[in-house]
Every structure is written in structure tokens, then in C-alpha cells.
Amino acid sequence: MIMEYPEPAEKIETAAQPLEPVIEALLFAADTPVTLARLTEITGADDTAIREAIDRLNQTYAETGRAFRISRVAQGYQLYTLPEYADWIRRLYAHTRIQRLSAAALEVLAIIAYKQPITRPEIEQLRGVDCSAPLLTLLERGLIVTAGRAHRPGNPFLYRTTREFLRYFGLESLDDLPRLEELGEFLAAREPESE
């Protein structure tokens, strides 16, 4: 059965409908982060009122022991489950095949994230091997896009990350990426574990 919803009014009267349940419903229904501008557009409330409503919702969730919160990610807001429920969520999807990124794709993605915009020849020079397959995978998954062409011989494509990249890794912006020094220390610390 297909549900039909009435066309939204230009501006919903927030006095008639409390803002918190409206925001909660919007974020519950959305499969991607919803920007503050979009929440403002839909509800007619201003930025401050929306941020305050989200803070009140998160406070209510914490006080009542809910398993989820609203988080700012990929320049928007999204409902997410708390990490302590990860094992239960894994059980829910135990029979679903999760497509993880290969080590090569993660390596190429890291190079793009830190050096963007960057060309394929530059990536291959840093990696020392061909990166055609990982680039194709990342493009298909929407984690990177072409960002024009470099002004050099052959005019190679430039690649950069997308909002989906931010959402996938739970980042609000590229500023949330660990510094390269921190990343190197983290990987060095994990090296003995993997052996």
C-alpha cells in the first residue's frame, strides 16, 4: 500500500505543532543527513530554534536511556545508534552482505582525502601501482567525484571526496580528518597488533 501525503503548506505553523517531533520525524524518515538549511526551509523555524530543538531531543534521549542520538555529520543532521549497540545491529544484518572497501580502495581514498584535488597519475606516483580499479569502485560508491581537469599534458581528471564520503566516515567536514602525523602514529601503533 502506498501512503499518500498531502502537499506541504508553504510554512507550517510551529505553534500548532511542536518543533521537536517534527524534526525527529524528518530525521527518522531521511536516509541521508539533512542540512540545517533544509530543516529551516521545511519547518519555517530559524537556525537557532532548530539547533535548540535538536539539543532538547538529544537531552531527552539521554535522560530516557534511548539507544540513539542526533549527530551532525556531512554538513547535516542524522539519527544514529550508539556504539554500545553495534553488536546487536550486526546481528540484525548478519545475513546481509556488507561490501567493505578493499585496502587498495581505502589507500586511494585516503590519498584523495588528504591531497584533493588530485589526478590519477599523482595518486599512482604516491602508491607506486595502478589505481584504475580502486578509483572506479570509489566513483561507483559515490565517495569521490571528478572535479574538473588539471591544466597539464593530457588534461587528467582531478578527483575529490563527496558528502557521501563524510557521511560514510561520520565526519562533519574535512576539518575532522585526523592530521597526517596523527594518522601515521595510529597506523604505527596498530602495526604490531596485525602481526
TrEMBL record:
Coiled coil regions in record: none
One Pfam family linked to the record: SMC_ScpB
Record's keyword annotation contains Glycoprotein: no
Entry keyword Cell cycle: yes
Gene Ontology BP terms: cell division; chromosome separation
Alphabetical UniProt keywords: Cell cycle, Cell division, Chromosome partition, Cytoplasm
InterPro entries, alphabetized: ScpB_csome_segregation, WH-like_DNA-bd_sf, WH_DNA-bd_sf
PANTHER family (alphabetical): SEGREGATION AND CONDENSATION PROTEIN B (PTHR34298:SF2)
NCBIfam families reported in the protein's UniProt record: SMC-Scp complex subunit ScpB (TIGR00281)
Protein name: SMC-Scp complex subunit ScpB
